[in-house]
Amino acid sequence: MLQLVENAKSYSQEIAIIEKEKSFTYQNLLDRSKEIAGFLLKNKSDLSESPVAFMVSPGFDYVATQWGIWQAGGIAVPLCITYPLPSLQYVIEDTGATIILVGDEYEEILKNYKNDTTKILVKISQIAASDVAQLPEIDKSRGAMILYTSGTTSLPKGVLTTHSNIESQITTLVKAWEWTSDDYILEILPLHHVHGIINVLCCALWSGATVEFLNQFDAKEVFKIFLQGKLNVFMAVPTIYFKLIAEWEKLAEEEQKILHQAMANFRLMISGSAALPVSVMEKWKEISGHYLLERYGMTEIGMAVSNPYHGERRAGHIGQPLPGVQLRTVDEEGNEISKEEAGEIQIKGPSVFKEYWGKPEATAKSFTEDGWFKTGDIAVLEEGYYRILGRDSIDIIKSGGYKISALEIEEVLRKHPAIKDCGVVGIPNEEWGELVVAALVTGQNLDTDQLNTWIRERMPAYKTPRKYIFIQDLPRNTMGKVTKNELKQLF
Ligand code: MCA
Ligand code: AMP
Questions:
Q1: Maximum distance among all alpha carbons in the chain?
Q2: Which ligand is in closest contact with the Cα of 434?
Q3: Per-residue pLDDT averaged across 27-45, rounded?
Q4: How many alpha carbons fall within 13 Å on the CB side of residue 140?
Q5: For residues 102 and 110, is the Cβ–Cβ distance under 8 A?
Q6: Is residue 448 part of a domain?
């Protein structure tokens, strides 16, 4: 996404990043990212779309590393900083990355790679100034980033986007949401997904705005930063708005009043990644004075549908297709239907990803013959605004804004020596959207705390089931398939 780096040159002395009260200018970013690119290139003239994995905390180093990989001609593969080793290994092995860049604090978890002769593990703090003769010319059609997303297959798939896809995802939003260099946003979202990377980080830096980082979400800390009066844009998932409302309710009336005034000065507050409950939208309006702008997107397509920046933001609805996005709805046979009937959303446009990394069959299956991407989300147009009705697969769960595959969790659970069989489903939950829960068929009673510890060594915490039931047999249909709707009823 080299236009992003080009743009930075015209803002060189402006503040790009604030991290732990330290400020970094766009020039700092340009200089450091060039050093990282120089290190990656060494004696090569171009990384030629080799994937480079990086595990770096949110902040200046993260952005400099991402830009460094891009300028050296590599594909950026951000690793989730809270993943346990097996989840990290899966991404590293699946992409085939041979270079892994780490922040000092993540060297320990990846230490096994030090003895792996096929990989190079490098601490970014050890990358010094280097002589870069020339950076390669990079065509926009080349691969730029791989992000992992869960789906209807048991293992997550790498979504490859090109520089051109990313540029389109950014410019669409910069225009629609009227980003400018005067903007100042707080970054609290994980930086291995589109919401944090594109909507927050890249849109802000494209525009010459300032991004302040908070390493980990904490409602009290977020409100403290709101009160400093510097922010004017905020983006989060519905769970975060829910948690902020809960924190607000603990405040004294006077504190609420001051906070309300601080929030009234924002120009824009956005929610996405999961359905925003109408109750949360209404409560947020009451406490902040803002109608949240809800939008809809997906790792494979960037943002596709948005409520308007100017005009009515309708609760329970995702809005209209963004400029440049073609949207149609189809029935179960794949025939295009009237938008006023419920059907699957299919998308075409320059923001749509190139392919699932190393999975040509999955890529082919996810597109129609005439090039529409099948989202699996069911929607209907109501008086000019789309509304999401659900998904075509019960095995996809959205919890805390994360997309989670029930099948992936089941596969891990089945590896536990005491679990003979299991079924994982998502049940509705006000705070998390859906809660991951599991029905277990075991020969004996299991200590669920011990089970959780066992799971967390193998999967990220957000994929850990939050409730268990122990049953004799899973409910099945006459074909022997587990009937997940029936399973849901058991919780
Ligand atoms: C964590 N906890 C949970 C869950 N996650 N409990 C139930 N369900 C969950 N999903 C528990 C933890 O185990 C812990 O409890 C306690 O909550 C606090 O954990 P922690 O990890 O600190 O949680 P948090 O920091 O409060 O996290 C909540 C969060 C986080 C900030 C909402 O989930 C988050 O960052 N979500 C955003 C994900 C995102 O960016 N998605 C975008 C995907 P205990 O201590 O007992 O263990 S991109 C996308 O979807 C598309 C493109 C789009 O449209 O944007
Ligand atoms: P991910 O694969 O993590 O990128 O998640 C994308 C999915 O999140 C979409 O396919 C939708 O199911 C869901 N999603 C994103 N935004 C919204 C929204 N505003 N309302 C409902 N679902 C959403």
A1: 68
A2: 1
A3: 94
A4: 11
A5: yes
A6: yes
What the block records as the tokens of 5 is: 């780096």
Is residue 427 situated within a structural domain? Answer: yes
Q: 229 φ, ψ to 5°?
A: 80, 15
**Main-chain phi, psi angles of 292, to 5 degrees:** -60, 140
Q: Domain containing 456: what range? A: 396-489
* In the predicted structure, residue 1 carries a pLDDT above the cut 70: no
What is d(CA 44, CA 30) in angstroms, rounded to the nearest whole number? 20
More confident position, 133 or 403 = 403
Whether the per-residue pLDDT at 131 is higher than 80: the answer is: no
- Mutate which of 199, 220, 239 for ligand 1? The one with the most ligand atoms within 8 Å of its CB, which is 239
What lines the ligand 1 site, CB under 6 Å?
A: 189-190, 193-196, 216-217, 237, 239-240, 272-273, 297-299, 399-403, 432, 435, 461-462, 466
The answer to whether the CB of 381 falls within 8 A of the CB of 339 is yes
Do 446 and 422 contact (CB within 8 A), yes or no? no
Decide: 180 and 268 in contact? Cβ < 8 Å. no
Sequence-ordered list of residues with C-beta below 8 angstroms from that of 383, at least 6 positions apart, any chain: none
pLDDT tens-place string over residues 446-466: 899 999 999 999 999 999 999
Asked if residue 91 lies in contact with residue 148, where contact means CB atoms within 8 angstroms, the answer is yes
* Residue whose entry in the numeric block shows the structure tokens 């025939």: 335
Does 299 sit in the ligand 2 pocket, CB within 6 Å?
Answer: yes
Q: Is residue 449 part of a domain?
A: yes
Whole-angstrom distance, CA of residue 373 vs CA of residue 422: 32
Q: Is the CB of 272 under 6 A from ligand 2?
A: yes
Strand 184-187 vs strand 419-429: parallel, antiparallel, or unpaired? Answer: unpaired
What 3-state class would DSSP assign to 347?
A: strand
- Among 366, 330, 430, 333, residue whose Cα is nearest residue 153: 366
| CATH number (domain holding residue 425) | 3.30.300.30
Measured in angstroms, how far is the CA atom of residue 403 from the centroid of ligand 2?
Answer: 8
* Ligand 2 and 434: CB distance under 6 A: no
Does 11 reside within a domain? no
3-class SS at 338? coil
The number of distinct structural domains making up the chain is 1
**The two three-digit tokens of residue 212, written as one number:** 């302040």
Confidence of residue 382 (pLDDT cuts 50, 70, 90): very high
